[in-house]
Prior knowledge:
The structure is a homodimer. Chain A is mainly α. Chain A is built from eleven helices and three strands, in the order H-H-H-H-H-H-H-H-H-H-E-E-E-H. In chain A, strand 2 (199-205) and strand 3 (208-215) form a beta hairpin. Chain A binds chain B through residues 48-49, 51-53, 55-57, 59-60, 62-64, 66-67, 71, 74-75, 78-79, 82, 134, 137-139, and chain B through 48-49, 51-53, 55-57, 59-60, 62-64, 66-67, 71, 75, 78-79, 82, 134, 137-139.
Amino acid sequence: MNISYPSxxxxxxxxxxxxxxxxxxxxxxxxLDLALTHPTASTQANYEQxxxxxxxxxxxxxxxxxxxxxxxxxxxxxxxxxxxxxxDRTLAQIADSYGFGRYLIVSSSAACDKAGEESRxxxxxxxxxxxxxxxxxxxxxxxxxxxxxFQPRAAxxxxxxxxxxxxxxxxxxTQGQYKILPxxxxxxxxxxxxxxERFTAEVWLRGDLLGEGKGRSxxxxxxxxxxxxFNKLKINN
Amino acid sequence: MNISYPSxxxxxxxxxxxxxxxxxxxxxxxxLDLALTHPTASTQANYEQxxxxxxxxxxxxxxxxxxxxxxxxxxxxxxxxxxxxxxDRTLAQIADSYGFGRYLIVSSSAACDKAGEESRxxxxxxxxxxxxxxxxxxxxxxxxxxxxxFQPRAAxxxxxxxxxxxxxxxxxxTQGQYKILPxxxxxxxxxxxxxxERFTAEVWLRGDLLGEGKGRSxxxxxxxxxxxxFNKLKINN
Lengths: 237, 237
């Protein structure tokens, strides 16, 4: 335990307790400290390099889980599930469930950037996974607590015919039925940067409004509109 | 050692000897057998799932190596180097250096598909990495022999101002100098599918022929032409 500030050491120990790590003595505290230091807090010693490794670590953890849990699934299904499991959105959700935001050292300006919060949490989460991986050179300090987050999500994605990519699913359907693509109209309808209702999207097909949705990004609003359309079309079929 | 055919077991042992694995007794031979079985040889038991895991394993191995070897490099440099290290081209080269083609079970029709050889070798290589990773749940059976392949390549990429992406480097240069993009003309100049001289590309800038190159794909020919142009422009500068 070589962290320079005793209070920081205590904070990190709290986080590790929350994760319920099986063998706390093997944690490399210096790396964990680094993993929870945002580039705005230190341009030299921050989580960037660990995040780079963590990106590979989380892909490996997700791959192993899928291989063990769904031996009969196709690789295409694996790829679809993995890309959602390792997405910023999922990783930020898991990080948030442990209150990672409390442990991440950032500059005060970055802390107020709500729009960047998701990617900040996801990046720090990947960096923490790298720190834990490098502590033992195995996934032993990771899978015991990460698997229970991934498992229900993987099951949900597998049971969803659109694989949670409603734009792609809707496009496939309209091309199959009519050989045309749906059209999206997006408007800025909120003023809060990063607010859930910032953008509103409509999706149209051959002059019909199929669905409408809101989101914090253009992409998210389009996905929400496509999901509404997808659900409506299923009902009408 | 549970492989059904004794001759196959012997073959695989030879490959493992070639790799110079530090602890041969820990190899999971059934997984290694699977890793070297192409989907055309068995639609049920083949390397596809292992390749999916291996993709994450090789990214992790490359990331760790870069983190340890170039602690002062930026994450952007790490990303550029890693994407080349884990490319089909690099992995197929390494696989070929051990004669992986000899150990890979494929259908005879696939075996004659020269154009698919590179991706076949790269896929099998990733699958073998997964089999070795899953044998110990560490990179212990991988890094001792893979690092020496990655190290000189990483050093070469770092010392190359174009980072081996000459099209991107040339484009950056022409945009910086003249605010225009170079133009490529590609012709099919060979008849051998997958032959090194199948396509010939020219790259032009403001009416001047900057360079010419050949390759087995349109992309490869364009890269070769861009590399010729890049080298020529450096001389003229």
